[in-house]
Amino acid sequence: MDNQPLTSEYPSLNRLDLTEQTYRVLREWILKRQIKPGEKISVEAIASGLGVSRTPVVNALKLLETDGLVEIHPRRGTFVTEVTARDIAELFEIRLLIELHAADVLFERAKSSEFLERIKPALNQMKAAISEDEYMDYEAFITNDRDLHTMLVEMLDNRRLLSIYNDLNVHMRIARAHYLNTVENALQAQKEHEAMFEALANQDLDSLKKELCFHITTVKQRILELLEERGGHL
Predict the structure, then answer these.
(1) What's the confidence (pLDDT) of residue 232?
(2) Tens digits of per-residue pLDDT, 176-207?
(3) What single-letter DSSP state applies at residue 83?
(4) Domains in the chain, please, with CATH?
């Protein structure tokens, strides 16, 4: 029940906004699987570890429930949400629609060259984060992978669509961490991103959309395979 991160791993919080800070700490622990899917969250253990009362923890958990990261069951407790095959299928269907639309708009507005320059640092950092047989920096790879795709949607300059996409990203971040847990998958993902980069450099919209579709579909299928291997839940 109290299998939460060790006391030595708890950060120090200032007194300005304890709910927001507690929310950010718990959110990061969930996304990094320091608190695993299906695991019960002990309000008392978290409050004690962070040195706060129960109130900021309870309020933070309500925010996490809104994000879809936890499920609160009266008289049973709060549990980290498990990701199912249906979740993955729905998330990636929406993601594909948004990113393909973003690619169309990118070329309609003649912003492909601007986007190309924006993603160069992320691509370079992804490349530097892996070698032929090991991760040099796992967190850097998955962070830049996420940022690269988010930058594509940001080019739409549509706040509401970006908000929807970022909400998806909360759950996709968990899924992406599973998919990219091997260097083999990371190297494949890097090749797919480089193919997108080449399509952009060649001003080839059809190729860009083809590579986006291939990449997103490949990631989805691999995660669904992992789900099946793990009994239907991540």
Answers:
(1) 65
(2) 666 666 777 888 888 999 999 999 999 999 99
(3) P
(4) 7-80 (1.10.10.10), 85-229 (1.20.120.530)
Residue 234's pLDDT is what? Answer: 61
Within the chain, residue ranges assigned H as helices are 18-31, 43-50, 54-67, 85-108, 112-128, 138-154, 159-179, 183-201, 205-229
Residue type, 174: I
CA distance 228 to 12: 39
Indicate the helix (H) or strand (E) that contains 73.
strand 70-73
204 Rama sector, left if φ>0, alpha if ψ -120 to 50, beta otherwise: beta
Output the six-digit token pair for 73.
């069951």
β-strand 77-80 against 40-41: which pairing, if any?
antiparallel
How is residue 179 annotated by DSSP?
H
Q: What was the pLDDT predicted at 115?
A: 96
Q: What is the pLDDT of residues 121-165, one digit of tens each?
A: 999 999 999 887 788 888 788 889 989 999 999 999 999 999 999
